[in-house]
Amino acid sequence: MKRITITLSDEIAAALDQYMGESGALNRSEAIRDLVRRAMLHQNDGPEHADCLGVVSYTVDQTKRNLGARLAKRRLDAHNRHLTSISVPLDHSTALEIEVTRGKLGEIASAAETLFLERGVAHGALSLVPVSVGGDHHVHDGEEASPHRHIHVQQSFSKPHEND
User: Fold this and answer.
1) How large a percentage of the chain has pLDDT more than 90?
2) Alpha carbon of residue 101 to chain centroid
């Protein structure tokens, strides 16, 4: 085994101690190993190049220096992947952010993990929806819109949609 040292906020340490009591872990190391194993089980199961939609949710502490500006720049830098975002003010300094992105699983997962490591970002969660982009570029009758293709939701990253 390897020994590592980590620093936790008082709130996270208290939550870890509570988890330790509830789970039957004998010490913090055992509790952390269990939590890390569980997190690794829930890693994205598709290939990095798979097309998907990502729904990213997290809270933001707006009092953290330049965090709001950094997050806005992050979305602008990836404007080709971001479909929409919503910000829900929770109090005078905290907001719940929800983003919907489109792209390759590896890119979306990596961007989400980087975001979740930002100071002032908490409760990060990523939900992935496997999709395929199908059909020829087309325009619907009577529309003056640009030609486009549709996104089709897949049952999983390995099984094609039953209607395709």
Assistant:
1) 52
2) 9
